[in-house]
């Protein structure tokens, strides 16, 4: 008797953007660049959130398909508008950002594990906007705490990734290893 077993393997490759901005809100902007949109599906968003440590390994709630990526793109567009204003040295319109931030809810939990007792902020994740609340908070951090003149776009016209210049170096390139291969000034 011959038994045939068919094994179907689904290999799904998720491309992630360069992780070089030095600030999570600018890394969010870099999920869209001159060559790629790295946020096309809910899975792309989850992979990016995990890499940026906004999510642990726990399963993500089962949202309606496409709602997470739509919320992430909405937050990215909000961030783009805010950063554009900062780069133009004008006061950003924070209405849309505040609406997004208002979706987030968190509470304190006491964690007891092998390292002892500690308090942790826990974020609700009943909706995609709540799952993205911590990302929204980094956009708020950019607005409130960061120096607009340190928010830069790579001088390489073929690259144009955003980065935050934490040093006094006056550098104008993003420093990503693939930058030079993306064209020249
Ligand atoms: Zn660059």
UniProtKB/TrEMBL annotation:
SUPFAM superfamilies: Jann2411-like. Gene3D superfamilies: Jann2411-like domain (1.10.3300.10). Transmembrane segments: none annotated. Pfam families: ABATE. PANTHER family: BLL6575 PROTEIN (PTHR35525). This is Zinc finger CGNR domain-containing protein.
